[in-house]
Design brief:
elongated; single chain; 1 helix; 50 residues; alpha+beta
């Protein structure tokens, strides 16, 4: 058995009770990328292809 429980776009760690919501995380990532590009800093390093 895994230490995570999956739901519809939600992941919960049974050990630490941390909750991840895929849609919220995606929105934050898109905002970070758009903001960086808008400020003419290019794409953030974490989101660049190698």
């Amino acid at each position: 058995m895994t230490s995570h429980t999956r739901g519809f776009g939600v992941l919960v760690c049974k050990a630490c009770k941390t909750l991840w919501q895929r849609g919220v995380n995606a929105s934050k990532n898109m905002m970070s990328i758009a903001s960086s590009i808008w400020n003419q800093d290019g794409r953030p390093t974490a989101f660049k292809r190698i």
